[in-house]
């Protein structure tokens, strides 16, 4: 199993100077750097820039993975055909960019939009039907690009369509693609699952990606989650994917606003302190998971 961390841990905005974080995460003891796809919209927009980023990752022996929360205008389960068309076009253009970058995993609430707006109407049954139908179309492009789409299971405050692993399992079975699988996140699981280890075992070979974070969104080891039980479940299913930390500990900026971080969770949130916490966390999970 490979261990990673999300680049926006260090930033207030989703688009980051990833060439800065690639050597950093390697030095801190990680194998993987996860980037937001906002980078491919705002920063790395040309093939040349994408290939330069890929070369940087290869030079330092770092694997890149990606995550994204589609906006309301990129919602493939919308009842507005214009929104769906815009969303499908967005993903059809994004997947070849990920292929060029060498990314094999795209995770997130790709079946809907994020963050949740409770003021909007919700028709889960109809939206699920549209999501399944449109993901069956997108899956063909994902298969051609060899990018697996991880359906992230979100807590009730950030999404309403897939809140548990059981729901996600039924959903991906309906989609029926080798490149549409389950993505779990310990922060969300802590809110929704009766038993986190049981949820991991239920996902089994359908688990393509895993996010790690404490119940307070700090790095593993800085909270109360049952990491030994989580590690045993991962060993039980012989999980071979990436376990990527997704801590959000700083208020301010787009990230603080969208994640709802209203106070700094680290008393001294300097880059040096964040580095120390990340380095300690990856040593902790490597030891506890033992894989």
Secondary-structure topology with pairs:
Elements: E1 2-6, H1 18-28, E2 32-36, H2 38-42, H3 47-59, E3 63-67, H4 81-101, E4 105-108, H5 124-145, E5 148-152, H6 165-175, E6 180-185, H7 186-192, H8 196-203, E7 207-212, H9 227-236, E8 242-245, H10 253-259, H11 271-289
Parallel strand pairs: 1-2, 1-8, 2-3, 3-4, 4-5, 5-6, 6-7, 7-8
Helix pairs in contact: 4-5, 5-6, 8-9
Query: Could you say which structural class the secondary elements and strand pairing correspond to?
Result: alpha/beta
**Which percent bin holds the helix content?**
40-55%
Shape from CA axes?
A: globular
**How many strands in all?**
8
User: Could you give the order of the helices and strands?
Assistant: EHEHHEHEHEHEHHEHEHH
- Widest beta sheet: strand line-up: 1-2-3-4-5-6-7-8
Rg (C-alpha, Å)? 18 Å
Assess the beta-strand content as a share of residues: 5-15%
Given as residue ranges, the uncertain stretches (5+ residues, pLDDT < 50) are none
Number of H- or I-type helical stretches: 11
Quick tags:
single chain; 291 residues; alpha/beta; eight-stranded parallel beta barrel; 8 strands
Task: Explain what you see.
Helices cover 46% and strands 14% of the residues. By secondary structure, it is an alpha/beta fold. It has an eight-stranded parallel β-barrel, surrounded by six helices. It is globular. It starts with a strand and ends with a helix.
